Amino acid sequence: MDEKVLSRDFEVSHLYQIDTYLQRGGYEAARQALRMKPEEIVEEVKKASLRGRGGAGFPAGMKWSFVPKVDKPKYLCVNADEGEPGTFKDRFIMSHNPHLLLEGITITSYAVGINLAFIYIRGEYERIAQRLEAAISEAREKGFLGKNIFGSGFNLEVVVHRGAGAYICGEETALLESLEGKRGHPRLKPPFPAAVGLFQMPTVINNVETISTVPLIIKNGASWFTSLGLPKDGGTRLFGVSGMVERPGIYELPVGTPLRKIIFEYAGGVKNGRKLKGVIPGGMSAPILLPEEIDVPMDCESVAKAGSMLGSGAIIVLDDQTPILEVLRLVAKFYSHESCGQCTPCRIGTSWINKIVRRMARGEGRKGDVDEIERLASQIKGRTLCPLGDAAAMPILAIVQKFREELEAALR
Amino acid sequence: MSMPSWETLRQEVESLAARYPKKEAAILPALHLVQRKLGYISPEGEKFVAQVLGVRPVRVREVVTFYTMFSQKPLGKYHLQVCSNLSCTLNGSQTLLDYLREKLGIEPGETTPDGRITLSTVECLGACDQAPCLMVNDDLYGRLDKPKLEALLASLE
Ligand SMILES: Cc1cc2nc3c(=O)[nH]c(=O)nc-3n(C[C@H](O)[C@H](O)[C@H](O)COP(=O)(O)O)c2cc1C
Ligand code: SF4
Ligand code: FES
Question: How far apart are the first and last CA of chain B?
Fold first, then answer.
């Protein structure tokens, strides 16, 4: 199947303007949803097996059903921080079709009983934030946001909140802290945000792509959605392919499409006809796969079984001319820069690894350095407050274990 | 800045704060506003935000020092941020950076003596399909090579 659903109209010019979006059937799903019972929407999304597109792959409908039915303000936070290296799909959605996201926000908020939604967008996406704000004004003018939407009695406001350059703020509890005007220091869980979230209130946090998929499920039904993908992992995903590849870009394909096919059939294979060295299948946090490991279907479970993770669906292709030490250097640099410093194993571990790798990159590596990196990374894993620790340790361990010989050769 | 413009800024910060259930949630947006108007977060700018939002100055300080986009030093008229993450490096961003260092005579983190250009490196800009890329203020420029970068640099007056 090559049919695009989410990005179907993305080539239509001026789709970001509400009139064009309406001509393409925009806001019909929201109109339809607001005539349904909120529980029916949650049930439909559960049946659709919509798994989170932000990184962890948690089923969205289930997450929504954890929100207690209490008479308190509840909030939606759309995660548009998009900091995971290799990931550029949310930029693609928001710049081409901001109204699709707004429509998804309306349906989700109605389903959970939310009247105030935030889009937490990374600060570097200023131009996109402006586009979202313009779309919000257009939608308010038409009465699609604000009070008594579609005459249903449902009210909703949407606020765009800009981050300021911190990868950790993509982690959901750090995002909440940042939205409250604080440093992005992750919170200890439990309590989970569904119960105690933004300003201590029940809060749903979902990725841009997850929320933008909701209108499609409402319009076409859960069984249509699972038939596109897999029974336990429905729909299509926006795979972002970059690195040493002929045709980098976004490819919307069914969940479960083999990684090899995405790289070689859709993205045109390795750049300049070179050979493949390895693939990072789900953003920088995902452990690297070797060329013989890329027949894996791209769904959450299969990629996990292959020892990596689907993450944000960001595929980074490495060719045989790429020194693995250079990849390791960039991974180590990134995590030591982005560790928030709250827990010792992550703070010390990432900066220590970074120091050793930099020394190796200068050609001053010492005997035992590779083992030392491995030891340090193993000590981070499973010992930190938030998942960034593991996100740093796992790709580093994979590189060290799969390319030990090449790394050792760089030592003297 | 003169008195009236602080007053305008105060009104803008207050209207930002009104969008949130709690005023202090507007610290980040208020700092963005200050940086946009002043070119950086000055000590007065920090105090101003604290005062308008009714928080202790240390709360604002904590935030300013945590987030990399907030600058405590004046930024150049043009802020060039070169992506130094994986897909951009694979596609030659180091060459672009070296070119800029040589041409501008400054290192990342520095500003040209005439205050025109600040050079920085950044982590992934979320535009890896356009690698190598960089930002000039709020705008992204992708699929760069040396000639395109030269032309871009020449276009900044
Ligand atoms: C260090 C770190 C960074 C993250 N960055 C992002 C991000 O930029 N965007 C995102 O949607 N999720 C990110 N996540 C995942 C979020 O914590 C959260 O699981 C997600 O937003 C939930 O939405 P989903 O269920 O729709 O995927 C990150 C997680 C960690 C640990
Ligand atoms: S694991 Fe790292 S990023 Fe997460 S809370 Fe601990 S120090 Fe901060
Ligand atoms: S690596 Fe440069 S934009 Fe992602």
Answer: 24
